[in-house]
Amino acid sequence: MTASDGITPIHIVLVEDNEADIELTRIAFERGRIMNRMTVLSHGREALEWFQALSRGEHSDRPDLVLLDLNLPGVNGDEILREMKGDAALVMIPVVVLTTSEDDADVAAAYREHANAFMTKPVDYDRFLKLVRGITDYWFTLVRLPAEGGAGK
After folding, report:
1. What is the CATH number of the domain that holds 123?
2. pLDDT given for residue 12 in this prediction
3. Is residue 151 domain-resident?
4. Which of 71, 80, 86, 94 measures 20 to 30 Å from 4, CA to CA?
5. Which residues of the chain fall short of a pLDDT of 70?
6. What confidence tens digit (pLDDT) does each residue in 98-111 have?
7. Alpha-carbon gap, residue 112 to 118, rounded angstroms
8. Which helix (H) or strand (E) holds 39?
């Protein structure tokens, strides 16, 4: 995907507080040649307020995909996920939980709150890059997403 194709860049919201993981995610998108615009929200409270403002129409920066860490300062990812999936204006936005947790309870809780996927971050650099590339291939090549706003607007 390139700008000359006339394709609008993919907008990804990365909710992540670890600077190394933020940088790895950026690198993975660059290496995968995925044309994107990434909004990084590194504090749980900041993310929650950003999505609430989107829901209220205070900005129109609707993402195509959210990559959500569970372990965040302020407000945890579980609460952000619950708020998003409980809000008619946000429910159609795909949310991939991308976290270090391998706890079955965290996996079950995420799916109970209607996460679209749960993925554990690999510690290995190359595997992390491969995972992020796989996410983008799946969500932006194979899957058909609803038009902006979907049924919630």
Report:
1. 3.40.50.2300
2. 93
3. no
4. 94
5. 1-8, 33-35, 148-153
6. 999 999 999 999 99
7. 11
8. strand 36-41
Q: State the pLDDT at residue 144.
A: 85
**From the CA atom positions of the chain, what is the Rg in Å?**
15
Whether residue 110 lies inside any domain: the answer is: yes
Contact in structure between 64 and 35 (CB atoms under 8 Å): no
Q: What are the beta bridge partners of residue 2?
A: none
**Quick one: pLDDT at residue 1?**
40
Q: Which two tokens stand for residue 84?
A: 């998003």
List all residues 6 or more positions away from 87 whose beta carbon is below 8 Å from its beta carbon. Answer: 51, 55, 152
Looking at the 3D structure of the chain, how many domains does it have?
Answer: 1
pTM: 0.89
Q: Is 124 part of any domain?
A: yes
Domain that holds residue 112: 3-140
